[in-house]
Amino acid sequence: MILDTNALSAYLDNMPEAVRMVSEARQVAVPVIVAGEFVFGIAQSRHREVYERSLERMLDRCAVLDVGIETARHYAAIRLELKSTGKPIPANDLWIAALARQHAIPVMSRDTHFDFVGGVRRLTW
């Protein structure tokens, strides 16, 4: 499964259901976009060192998905699909959805707008 930012936060904050889902997953991936959002949040936190260590440990245990030209093609297709249905989603989540569709991996997120993206399955806790 791909972790969205809120899923990564829930896991690192030891929310029991999120921890269970991540622990039981066959594969866990973090998009570079999520890593960027998390690093941005950490930079503003007074608990920066603790969060940096937690993120580092997590990234050592899972795949980090980079964006490439194939991802860009999925991004464009999804953006066009959502535009035609009048259901745009935030730009960073478009990239996460593109990676999910490209790799055929579900996204763990509380954000229901992932449900508007064809070919992407959302898991929640």
Description:
The protein contains six helices and five strands, in the order βααβααβααββ. With 125 residues, it is mainly alpha-helical. It has one domain: Rossmann fold, CATH 3.40.50. The strands form two sheets. Strands 1-4-5 form a three-stranded parallel sheet. A two-stranded parallel sheet has the order 2-3. The protein is globular. The mean pLDDT is 96.
Shape: globular
What is the count of β-strands? 5
Reported CATH architecture = 3-Layer(aba) Sandwich
CATH topology, what is it called?
Rossmann fold
- The CATH class assignment is Alpha Beta
User: Can you identify the CATH superfamily?
Assistant: 5'-nuclease
Helix percentage range: 55-70%
In spatial order, strands of the major sheet run 1-4-5
Characterize the quaternary organization of these chains.
single chain
What's the N-to-C terminus distance?
Answer: 13 Å
Average pLDDT figure: 96
Strand content: 5-15%
Number of helices: 6
Q: What integer value in Å does the Rg equal?
A: 14 Å
Class computed from helices, strands and strand pairing: mainly alpha
Along the chain, the helix and strand elements come as EHHEHHEHHEE
Largest beta sheet, briefly? 3 strands, parallel
Low-confidence stretches: none
List the helices and strands and how they pair.
Blueprint: E1 2-3, H1 5-12, H2 16-24, E2 29-31, H3 32-43, H4 48-61, E3 63-65, H5 69-85, H6 91-103, E4 107-108, E5 122-123
Parallel strand pairs: 1-4, 2-3, 4-5
Helix pairs in contact: 1-2, 3-4, 5-6
